[in-house]
Inverse folding.
């Protein structure tokens, strides 16, 4: 089985642009997570979906970040408009419905905002 | 970061030795997870714990919710154990997890 796929692997954006990051979870997994990792803030949960329903929206990230799960095999994270402080690695993970904490992580998307 | 404090921040071990990493919580943690981020950047899920202990091979973890801490013990450290270990805590009635700042472990030959 394929693991979690994330595209693109690298993204460079100008300040103020809209960018969309994509994630395909492991086939059959019901739970999907988006995380952000920076040197300063470390790892932070951005959003959590269960069976396509948003269960956690990450509080502080609401204003410019929007995660969607359009179907059970695809999710997007939109950042609009981007700011330099959004430069980070964005990680997607998925897990089976009955083992929420058994998360499989994707390779991440490294975003640089100039 | 301050709600979940990890110690030590960095550690070097000789291959074959043992060590313990620790997380202290200032939130009412109900569950704890431990992750390893290897030198290539890949994140691996190690443990999920409610209060109690779990063991998997050379790794053993414990979570004491009353004393608000968790530990990760590494026995017979191997080179492939090198990386950054993160703990993450989840509070009651929430899906939000709070991560610690990590312990960077280097296992030396």
């Amino acid at each position: 089985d394929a693991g979690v796929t994330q595209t693109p692997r690298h993204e460079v954006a100008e300040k103020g642009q809209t960018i969309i990051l994509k994630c395909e979870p492991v086939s059959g997994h019901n739970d999907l997570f988006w995380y952000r990792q920076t040197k300063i803030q470390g790892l932070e949960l951005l959003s959590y979906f269960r069976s396509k329903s948003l269960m956690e929206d990450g509080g502080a990230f609401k204003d410019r970040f929007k995660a969607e799960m359009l179907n059970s095999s695809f999710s997007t994270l939109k950042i609009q408009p981007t700011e330099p402080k959004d430069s980070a690695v964005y990680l997607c993970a998925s897990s089976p419905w009955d083992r929420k904490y058994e998360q499989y992580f994707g390779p991440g998307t490294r975003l640089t905002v100039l | 970061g301050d709600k979940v404090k990890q110690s030590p921040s960095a550690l070097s071990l000789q291959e074959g030795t043992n060590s313990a990493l620790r997380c202290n919580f200032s939130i009412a943690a109900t569950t704890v997870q431990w992750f390893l981020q290897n030198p290539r950047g890949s994140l691996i899920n190690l443990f999920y714990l409610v209060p109690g202990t779990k063991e998997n091979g050379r790794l053993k973890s414990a979570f004491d919710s009353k004393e608000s801490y968790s530990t990760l013990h590494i026995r017979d450290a191997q080179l492939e154990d090198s990386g950054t270990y993160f703990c993450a805590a989840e509070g009651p009635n929430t899906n939000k997890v709070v991560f610690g700042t990590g312990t960077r472990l280097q296992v030396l030959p």
Summary: The mean pLDDT of chain B is 93. The two ends of chain B are 32 Å apart (CA to CA).
